[in-house]
């Protein structure tokens, strides 16, 4: 188990009203219990996660930071159901996903999890509108047109909805990816370095949107980043080192995050 489990077990600082939805056991949107992830076996085995206990409230915005190799990507992939833990349990909303077989897990992810990656991952042949609604079509669900229009409007792309990704700036493409992540009204959105490829102005717009969706849509956002300025936009920053949770800061400034990271070694 991680040393500071108790310090970061319940990440609910928004009061009881926000904790009512999600897992019936905890009221959380995402919950990890004793999550271990080991790559390889024998002498080549790597313990990437060493027993993570963590609960994230619905509507919370959490950044994950840690030195290179500390397990951030492994954490994100395991919490989001892109990979399965070696042992332990992961819940998203009411569903324990850690024991789902690959096909059911893929279906669950399509319907309940949104992703925003550094590389946007838009389909070049599809328009903005078609990219945004793609998860619904992949899930065999109809398009809720007012919701689609609200998502496209909320990311500021009303006038660009017919364009192809190649006709958009990086920031605009990332905003398409955010609308696409929200189109299924997911239980959680996972963002991996969402501003990593953007200049500071476009990056700020993307972060503004992530903050806005936690407030306006009560969305739960988990973001991995190397950048303390980016992490400072989250309500809470959780620190990983050597596969364990080693601390958390709430409402931290960039400097406070830098100081904590410096204490964890090279990053
Ligand atoms: N597929 C894999 N097979 C074997 N070891 C792996 C694999 N993926 C990651 N690891 C190891 O697990 C540990 C955690 O890696 P992870 O990529 O989660 O760290 P990270 O904090 O995201 O690193 P970075 O900041 O450099 O991207 C590292 O020691 C890494 O070498």
Describe the protein's architecture and organization:
This protein is α/β, with parallel strands linked by helices. It has a single domain, classed as P-loop containing nucleotide triphosphate hydrolases (Rossmann fold, 3-Layer(aba) Sandwich), CATH 3.40.50. It is built from nine helices and eleven strands. Helix 5 (145-154) packs antiparallel against helix 6 (170-182) and helix 6 packs parallel to helix 7 (200-216). The radius of gyration is 18 Å and the shape is globular. The model is unreliable at 1-25 (pLDDT under 50). The chain binds adenosine-5'-triphosphate (ATP). Adenosine-5'-triphosphate (ATP) binds next to strand 3 and helix 2. This is ABC transporter. InterPro entries: AAA+_ATPase, ABC_transporter-like_ATP-bd, ABC_transporter-like_CS, ABC_transpr_LolD-like, MacB-like_ATP-bd, P-loop_NTPase.
The kinds of small molecule bound in this structure are: adenosine-5'-triphosphate
Number of domains: 1
Structural class: alpha/beta
CATH fold annotation: Rossmann fold
- Classified by CATH, the class is Alpha Beta
The topology string of helices and strands comes to: HEEEEHEEHEHHHEHEHEEH
Q: What's the main sheet like?
A: 6 strands, mixed
Query: Which runs of at least 5 residues are low in confidence (pLDDT < 50)?
Result: 1-25
Q: What average pLDDT do the residues reach?
A: 89
The helix content is 25-40%
Shape: globular
Number of H/I helices: 9
Physical arrangement of strands within the biggest beta sheet: 7-8-9-4-10-11
N- and C-termini, Cα separation: 23 Å
The CATH superfamily appears as P-loop containing nucleotide triphosphate hydrolases
User: What radius of gyration results from the CA coordinates?
Assistant: 18 Å
* Quantity of strands, as a count: 11
Strand fraction equals: 15-25%
